[in-house]
Amino acid sequence: MGEVELHTATGELIIRSVFYFYGDAASSALAERIASEIADHWNAPGAAITIRKKTYTVYFEISGMYEPSLKPERVWYNDDPQLNFFRIEKYVMGDISFVDGIGCNTGYFKLDNLLQTSSTAAHEYGHTIGLAHPRIPDIRGGHHPGIMYPRGTLCDAELQYDPKALPSTPGGFLDPAHRSVCLDDIRQLNLHKLDFNDHGFARLGEFSSIYHEKHEEGFS
Predict the structure, then answer these.
(1) Do residues 86 and 125 make contact, with C-beta atoms less than 8 angstroms apart?
(2) Interval 142-162 mean pLDDT
(3) What residue segments make up the domains of the chain, in order of their start?
(4) For the whole model, what pTM was predicted?
(5) pLDDT tens, 29-61?
(6) Which of 23, 35, 75, 211 is placed for a possible disulfide with 88 were both Cys, Cβ 3.0 to 4.6 Å?
(7) 191 Cβ partners below 8 Å, 6+ apart?
């Protein structure tokens, strides 16, 4: 989720998102790293968009904060569209990072997912600002993997975890390290359709406002 500003003076469309991280595996260093990786991925295309006959450069301004003493009430009653809240732990039920919906501001990160590839947080961020997985998870035939393709995507051999593996066998799926944000990912945000107020601000996404308790192994 983020707050969007249409900055006419500079010709920028700025999307601001602030992430608050809590949980036993969270840290200040990890918070800064995640924010930097999200910003790097989403700013990489250097996208531009036309709104009201004026062209704006799209810029993502991402911040990460470590909040070890985060209270549930802070999440439940937050009404700032810039703020997102994610728990980070070594163990996650289902064994994979997740968000609480498409276009939301809360979720749960599995530490290993963040350490294995720099695209995990950027992928989950895409969900928070309204993007789902592509309808057909198969990019064989020379197609580039956009940021929203899931880990089970079929792809050409050089993009697999194991280039020698047969498709759909262990190692025969997309290695998320190859994902990146492309211009089509930006286009699918439909930024030109946002309802900007008189001050040039709009909201991208919705409030899910879910505080996550720690998942314990052996419990469901």
Answers:
(1) no
(2) 94
(3) 1-86+189-220
(4) 0.93
(5) 999 999 999 999 999 999 999 998 999 999 999
(6) 23
(7) 4, 13, 49, 51, 58, 204
